[in-house]
Design goal:
Blueprint lengths: L11 H19 L12 E6 L5 H12 L3 E6 L11 H9 L5 E6 L4 H7 L6 E7 L5 H17 L14 E5 L6 H12 L3 E5 L15 E3 L2 H6 L4 E4 L15 H8 L3 H9 L6 E3 L12 H4 L6 H20 L15
Parallel strand pairs: 1-2, 1-3, 3-4, 5-6, 5-8, 6-7, 8-9
Bound molecules: phosphoric acid mono(formamide)ester (CP).
């Protein structure tokens, strides 16, 4: 594997290898070893054409913890504003000896274009492209679920994957690269995913995704859930006609205080509440839910560093193994 572009084409073997390596990386952090020499002499370029807090900073932290040099590029304030193309921008940065390019772009498909064009030799890592994919977010979400449930006593071990776990992904699915990447990865790891959204915020063709689809958050919760992942309402990508009123959205599709109480009423004591961030508090998630003991929002951010260390290490140190010929790609 040379690049990480999406989870749809990520084999189970590679996904588990990344999650297991992230586990080792997080153990390094717990022992308070601040740096590993693994990528000394390598250069990681963060190429961000869209805003980011978590992804950009955690890729930078991950690269530095592996002793790589880091170049941060944001489109704002760069020669992109003078019309410089993606090709010229990427080649300019590679001329500064980039070994990996971590790219976030507003256009779906930009990372794949960079990886498959022959413009550069560096490994390409998709840090979120348009409404298409955000593979490292999905990997850190899976890592967070795996860590949470494997720490619990009294439940069967989830082992290397998430077999049989019931996961709801709710909200603005239409614009969510996080939802797409999670659906594919969670399917590969054996979980059962239900998407819940207003009809206007579901993409065309969603019936062909490997998951169930519902418009009814309460009914889906009542059926039982191990993790509920709330999605950000992406107002910046939205036409007014897509969106029910804010009040209606919060009432029918927001994870509010009443739905938080539902988890207690159903005695779902190990169910976690996730959100990739940034959150619209009071819209898709209430503050009580976001700050509750069930919330993994900050654990997700913390785990993002370990997962991105694993991805950089496996791609740049050339350690990622191709699956054995007789291994199962997908369940
Ligand atoms: N979850 C996520 O991608 O957050 P940022 O946009 O802050 O990177």
């Amino acid at each position: 594997m040379r690049h990480l572009l999406d989870t749809e084409d990520l084999s189970r073997d590679h996904a588990v290898q990344i999650l297991d390596t992230a586990q080792e990386m997080s153990a390094v952090g717990e022992r308070e070893v601040k740096k590993l020499p693994a990528l000394r002499g390598r250069t990681v370029v963060n190429l961000f054409f869209e805003d980011s807090t978590r992804t950009r900073i955690s890729f930078e932290a991950a690269a530095k913890r592996l002793s790589a040099d880091v170049i941060n590029f944001t489109a704002k304030g760069s020669s992109v504003s003078k019309g410089e193309s993606l090709k010229d921008t990427a080649q300019t940065l590679e001329a500064m000896s980039a070994d990996a390019v971590v790219i976030r772009h507003w256009a779906s498909g930009a990372p794949a274009r960079l990886a498959n064009s022959g413009w550069i030799d560096a490994a390409v890592i998709n840090a979120g492209d348009g409404t298409h994919a955000h593979p490292t977010q999905a990997l850190l979400d899976a890592f967070t679920m795996r860590s949470h449930w494997s720490k619990l006593s009294g439940i069967p071990s989830v082992g290397a994957d998430l077999k049989g776990m019931r996961i709801i992904i709710a909200g603005d699915v239409l614009h969510s690269r996080v939802a797409r990447s999670n659906v594919w990865l969670l399917r590969t790891l054996g979980a059962h995913v239900t998407l819940v959204a207003p009809p206007t915020l579901l993409p065309v063709g969603v019936e062909h995704w490997p998951c169930k689809v519902s418009y009814d958050l309460d009914a889906t919760l009542e059926a039982g859930v191990d993790a509920i992942m709330m999605l950000r309402v992406q107002a910046e990508r939205m036409k007014a006609s897509f969106f029910p009123s804010t009040r209606e959205y919060a009432r029918r599709w927001g994870f509010d205080d009443a739905r938080l109480a539902t988890l207690d009423r159903l005695n779902l004591k190990d169910t976690i509440i996730m959100h990739p961030g940034p959150m619209n508090r009071g819209l898709e998630i209430s503050s009580a839910a976001a700050d509750s003991v069930r919330s993994t929002v900050l654990a997700q951010v913390r785990n993002g560093v370990s997962v991105r260390m694993a991805v950089l290490y496996l791609l740049l140190a050339g350690e990622i193994r191709d699956p054995q010929p007789n291994s199962k790609q997908n369940p």
